[in-house]
DNA sequence: CGGATTTGACCCGA
DNA sequence: TCGGGTCAAATCCG
């Protein structure tokens, strides 16, 4: 979920703050994003139904799908309302169970462990707790994994994929949070700022799909996406961003209506302008920025998890566990599912 | 075949 | 000496 990664960095952007955001702020941010998503869904619903009026099956299908999306937002907002820090303060931890989401796991968790001692002097570190440790919009390459004393889970070490070619110093260390939460949370410690931010013209065309290893190693940017704008530099005029955002929302609206119409008309591809359904060419979304990993779920980490509730990023992060400090035996896949 | 991941070994600061 | 962090050869994978 894109909102998760945005949340993870929303209080920082390029000017990184260190330490986790206050739970109340995170909660408010989640509610704000969900509310916005709900509103946009309603607008999309109105636009789609207007565009598909009188088209029988297509109109009915659009009504159903968008109704379900709207309902999902409503449920999430209700969950967040019952999970508000104020509500949590009123209700003891042993209160009746409710559906738990990765996000509310994050906000219900107490203060994260104290920041780690920096190995190098003056190297700033940013620590966050997230259910999606890799889904932060950057491409990472794993260079090590180690079991850490007094922890139940190994720590993984990642470097920016542009570490070599652009001398990007960014690194992050990911470790599953201790505890017996059904939904795993990960401590992610970022060190150094990214130095690999390319000008938009240099960015790979995310619409080309999988373009081999080179393309896969490149950061994925979503045109108009706010965290991308942040990433592209603090020198961006903030007032311009407001205009850009309005234009982006209008573009999103047109794109969604067009793609929905294409889907309902049985079209399979939307990336060819000649094949578009009239509103404009629609690019298939880029693959989620997930660092490839061949790790398999481990017996400790995976127990009791509902895989369907997790995105690929989460699933890939269940590391195998072994006995010695650095190596972790690969479990039999057949025993895991 | 090239790039990504794994993992045993090594480095180095406390 | 211990343990976190990194290196680099082996291995995996598309």
Distance between the termini: 24 Å
Shape field: elongated
Q: Treating each run of at least 4 consecutive H or I residues as one helix, how many helices? A: 10
> What does the largest sheet look like?
5 strands, antiparallel
Secondary structure category: alpha+beta
Which runs of at least 5 residues are low in confidence (pLDDT < 50)?
Answer: 1-21, 87-121, 198-249, 265-337
Run of helices and strands: HHHHHEEEEEHHHHH
CATH superfamily of the largest domain: WRKY domain
- Overall pLDDT confidence: 52
Helical content (DSSP H or I, runs of 4+): 25-40%
Count of strand segments: 5
Radius of gyration: 21 Å
Domain WRKY: 134-197
Main location: nucleus
Biased composition (Polar residues): 1-15
GO cellular component, one term: nucleus
What does this structure look like?
Residues 1-15 have a biased composition (Polar residues). InterPro entries: WRKY_dom (IPR003657), WRKY_dom_sf (IPR036576), WRKY_plant (IPR044810). It comes from Oryza meyeriana var. granulata. The chain is an alpha+beta fold and 337 residues long. The chain folds into 3 domains: 21-91 and 98-110; 119-196 and 293-337, N-terminal domain of TfIIb (Single Sheet), CATH 2.20.25; 211-292, no CATH class. 37% of the residues lie in helices and 10% in strands. The chain has helices at 2-10, 23-51, 57-82, 85-90, 102-108, 212-216, 226-231, 238-264, 299-302, 312-316; strands at 125-130, 140-147, 154-160, 171-176, 186-191. A 5-stranded antiparallel sheet has the order 1-5-4-3-2. A hairpin with a 6-residue loop joins strand 2 (140-147) and strand 3. Helix 2 runs antiparallel to helix 5. It is elongated and about 60 Å long. The model is unreliable at 1-21, 87-121, 198-249 and 265-337 (pLDDT under 50).
